[in-house]
Amino acid sequence: xxxxxxxxxxxxxxxxxxxxxGLNINPVLATLLVHRGIKNFEEAKYFFRPTHLHLHxxxxxxxxxxxxxxxxxxxxNDEKVLVYGDYxxxxxxxxxxxxxxxxxxxxxxxxxxxxxxxxxYGISTAGIDYAAANDFGLIxxxxxxxxxxxxxxxxxxxxxxxxxxxxxxxxxxxxxAVAVLDPKRADCAYPFKExxxxxxxxxxxxxxxxxxxxxxxxxxxxxxxxAISIACDIVHITGENRVLAHLGLQKINENPCIGxxxxxxxxxxGTTYTISDVVFLLGPRINAAGRIDDAKHAVELLIACHEDxxxxxxxxxxxxxxxxxxxxxxxxxxALSMIDNDAVMIARKSTVVFNKDWxxxxxxxxxxxxxxxxxxxxxxxxxxxxHVAGSARSVLGYDLYEALCGCSDLLIQFGGHKYAAGxxxxxxxxxxxxxxxxxxxxxxxxxxxxxxxxxxxxxIELADIDSKxxxxxxxxxxxxxENMSPVFLSKNVYVSGxxxxxxxxxxxxxxxxxxxxxxxxxxxxQADLLPQLKQGVPFxxxxxxxxxxxxxxxxxQLNIKAxxx
Length: 565
What we know:
A 5-stranded parallel beta sheet has the order 3-2-4-5-6, sandwiched between helices. It is built from 20 helices and 18 strands. α5 crosses α14. It is globular.
């Protein structure tokens, strides 16, 4: 697949030189700091040395006082409290965190996860009815609720109070809850707006702990859960999230809670987790519980106090993840075959595929895979609860939500954001939706947006990469949205020795420039380029720089993102 190579604008030379001199670092690394908004020594120190002292005062969040007052009232009156959260990673880690913390101070507490297939996303009528029928006077809702105006009004008629802890964008009207914690509220002065749902739950327990002068260790023990939510919910890894992710990864690698430790064991990796490892090894297993079975199993694992109970849950979740992978691969193969054997579908600017028998729990994953392969807005549809349900994914710069707005006359409901959305429709509208979606996308997407972009931070010589350069570059981690692992460009490199294939479709080789050492490289899924990678033939290459560990030997490796012969 062709890719667009886009080099970031040059940083301010004066600031780069001052930073490079003040920090005694390569100007390329100083350029990366400026790209991240860092312009002086103090900001660089904050960036490179995150500590819990950098966390904001939780009481800066609108309604935090009200939330803590209501929780204190519930504890004083021995009122039943229900911790409610969604079935995805952010929701289940949120519930595990808030439930585990408050259970130490209040035994009359339980949790509730809505059924993915019967109740769907967010606060459900069934969940409120369950609370009312079982005498729960207070629900703490996590990672959901900011748009549940009607549901909260219904709960109020039953005498069930709500504290909402959400990080999604509010609608025009806020729900009439006792407290609404959401930094994205227009009237909220909280200095960091991009917390995960679990991050909001963390601020709630931090506020309670601060008010009651409890040891900070009682809050810090949940850093691992917060880091997992940050990684898997794909929120910005900047500001307070970067601090939480840094501290959380430390905890995951040094002293994870029993549930996370068990999850790491069943995933087959003990330590040295990065954000990327959390996304690909831990996240899918937590998600699999809700996709294939019941997300309560994920919460039970994450709150486990005994290794035997955790192992039982961990093994079960691992089995569900294997089932999920089976569904995922089968449906992806079927979808790829549908597209590749249909000339009309191949020629389109959008992809919509439908099979009534596909498993609803994995269609989002399949949509992501199809978007990766064909690089265009994609919708995967299946039958569910008498309707057709869909999961949609977009490409960089294209607003998928707006495209679905253009098809709203054919949909029962839809929701999401620029790059990912869910939708439902009547089965008879599927053919019309396929045509309308293609029409809307075709009219609004640019040819440029249909070509995958490689965003390059800086052009460097291979000779720039030495142990000091790599050591400082490693401190830019944890990497993620708004702080991605930097992609570098080097021109006129050569293969040293011979390039070869590993794993069937990946290119393994050494490259060098005149006067540089030879660097080990891996180019995933780029086997089609192998015939052109000959000794003596110069080419340009974009890559990230990483550490490769093989039989306890550590070496620098270049992870090739694109090659231009």
